[in-house]
Amino acid sequence: MKFITVLGARPQFIKAAPVSRELRKEHEELIIHTGQHYDANMSDIFFEELHIPKPDFHLGVGSGSHGKQTGDMLAQIEEILLAEKPDYLLVYGDTNSTLAGALAAAKLHIPVVHIEAGLRSFNKKMPEEINRIMTDHVSEYLFCPTDTAIENLTNENITHNVINVGDVMYDAVVYNKKLANEGSEILTKHGLESKQYHLITIHRAENTDDEQKINNILEAFNKIDELKVWPIHPRTKHKLESYGLKLDEIPNLKVIEPVGYLDMLTLESNAKKIITDSGGVQKEAYFMEVPCVTVREQTEWVETLEGEANILVGTDVNKIIEAVNKEVSPSYKLVFGDGNASRKIVEAIRK
Question: Which helix (H) or strand (E) holds 202?
């Protein structure tokens, strides 16, 4: 069978790596990279580290408004699909790349395979929520990471070809964690000691596009005494500069350039706590049993909230400080599968 996979952002590169390995044992796969993440540290390095074959098509869409970005992708993906005539199109998660790929294929009657289907934050102000809902409703095969995702789809009357296979991101962590621990020198490079720092990742538009929210987040960081390490997202850096906000005035904050996947796994697994607004990082924290503080009002990964493994704080200054300083002893359950989601996906499509 012939598959085309659409990728555009860091989390999708990570999810695609184990699936691509399984697919290519028996089938043909072509990769479209939309260029949604185009910075070398946010894109190229992931293909290299995860041994993902180089994209067959690079759209170079770059940044822009949601409508323009999605529209540009849609037009270009449609041309490729018409020329290549794949049997299936694979999309991951909830980005504009996901939606553009799904719409292009669905309108050409090419079956859409949505990996990481069924997630809901129930907040339609998040562009990711719109992308998830629309992609699920045009997909032919919906591979879910959890039972909660199955329930969400059932509540929307989507029950055909819906399967809980577990989380492909868990597959990636299981496969790469040992490589990261053996090969990464990121702690030595930045003079970090295990469990002696908090790791920060902030990039969501709902936080970075709101000057008051990002101000609150920085005010909280200013009042957290312990060492904080922040591999800063290019978009976040640009937004902070546009607001005239300076990070060098925050005590015990070490700002570093974006890092590759293996270095990120090392930083995450050795952190005392992780402070994030990223869906993927929330999961990685859970997989590696590192307490997480999520700077959002909702999460699509509700399973991580059990036993204070992940604490939602929004952008309330005091809640952020309290959650970071709080001593927790969370318990972790195997709710994201057994690390074989990728194999189950390929077997289900074959059947």
Answer: none
Supply the residues annotated as catalytic.
203
Residues facing residue 7 across a β-bridge: 33
Q: What is the pLDDT of residues 218-262, one digit of tens each?
A: 999 999 999 999 999 888 999 999 999 999 999 999 999 999 899
Specify the pTM.
Answer: 0.90
Residues 35-55: tens digit of each pLDDT: 986 665 566 888 888 888 899
Q: Helices 168-183 and 279-287 meet at what angle, rounded to 10?
A: 70
Q: Please write the tens of the pLDDT for every residue from 1-45.
A: 999 999 998 889 999 999 999 999 999 999 999 998 666 556 688
Model confidence pLDDT, tens digit, residues 305-339: 999 999 999 999 999 999 999 999 998 998 999 99
Cα gap 262→177, rounded to integer Å: 8
Q: Which residues pair with 254 in a beta bridge?
A: 229
- Coil/strand/helix, residue 12: helix
Whole-number Å distance between alpha carbons of 44 and 13: 10
CA distances from residue 11 to 169, 177, 189, 300 in whole angstroms, order as listed: 8, 16, 24, 15
Distance CA 23, CA 346 (A): 6
The DSSP 8-state label assigned to residue 305 in this structure reads: G
Phi-psi label, residue 167: left if phi above 0, alpha if psi -120 to 50, beta otherwise: beta
Nearest alpha carbon to residue 333 among 272, 287, 302, 294: 287
Tokens of 15: 């999810």
Q: How far apart are CA 24 and CA 2, in angstroms?
A: 10
**How far is residue 339's CA from residue 274's CA, in Å, rounded to a whole number?**
23
